[in-house]
Please model this.
Amino acid sequence: MRIIAIIQARIGSTRLPGKVLKIAAGKPLLWHVITRVKKAKTLDGVVVATTNSAQDDKIVILAERLGAGVYRGSENDVLDRYYLASREFKADAVVRITSDCPLIDPLVIDDAVRLFKNSGADYVSNTVTLSYPNGVDVEVFKFSALERAWREARLASEREHVTPYIWKRPGIFKIAQLVNSEDWSNYRITVDDDKDLMLVRRIFAEFKNKLFFSTRDVVRLLQRKPELPEINSGTKRNEGYAKSLREDRTVKA
Model:
């Protein structure tokens, strides 16, 4: 089984434009994402799926410099972008990673992939049953499930966010959840706004700008220094998806 991680990335973020190229510990956030994902031992390849917009040329240059594959496709129909990237890189299964997770943990990716293989599930994630920090989000799914979603999803929210068509249909797809031994879901280490970016930079500084440390290391730091999670405590989880649901509409696939 060929398992490919696909990282979605674009410059045109609405809440923090250009965030994927913002700097933390001397490197762009996307650099951290790609480098960390490539440390996972269960993957057969890493691909950055970006858009056809000229402003995303910088993403292509960075991805290629780091040895990642690149696919360019639709800006708004991210489901289409994932499906075509998966097909081009001949994936039997896909690990979905978003570029706003500069502290993504390869150990968690490997745990999710192992659960996917051992459970025989169509879809595995740590994002439906919440126990990991927001920002360590991993989804693994069969290409066949992705293809069915690509054919059948008609809501804008399902095409922008890639996997809701799958995980909202447990009667069609076999679904399993990766659940941590401790509940860390109250912590937020993703980057959607300036406060998030400030926290991530502080975390890197606390680790003396070391470029790899685990989710457990981060959580223990935040527990020791509760003033750190206060930096972005006012930001709600999954605001982007909630906004998509409020504005949802039927679209032509």
The beta strands are 3-8, 23-24, 27-28, 45-51, 69-73, 93-98, 123-125, 139-142, 175-177.
